Amino acid sequence: MNARAVLAKLREHDIRVSACGERLLIDAPAGALTDDLRAVLTESKPEILAALEEDAQRSVRQASALVAYASSVLPFVRFTVRETGDTERDFTLLHRLRQIVEEHQPGGNRILLRVVTTDGRNVVLDWRAVDSRELRMDIARVLAEARTGS
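RESULT FIELD:
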């Protein structure tokens, strides 16, 4: 099964896959990730990582004009996170940020998170939540804590 077919099959089961360096991050409903699917993921990991990278690059290229237009029309929150090389710490930070966004009524305004990877690449994540002073303050607090190592 090629990487695109694997990703399509995972989407059918409401399983989301993303890349974090050379790791696959899996978000799946309880019981959805069967042993068979795990085996397919393990076998196809390099191809899946390549497909996810290709999708991310295509998305950035296609969205550039849309992002420029949307940024002039829609208010949104922008912030940047730099990978430290400590995968567990970086993953924990992104997980905390995602939790904050989800607490602030997902589905509203755009929240653009730019991740600067350890090899210098820029990866843009587009999340949605209702923009509020509290959301901005919560994000700022988490980022400040991450910088100081709290």
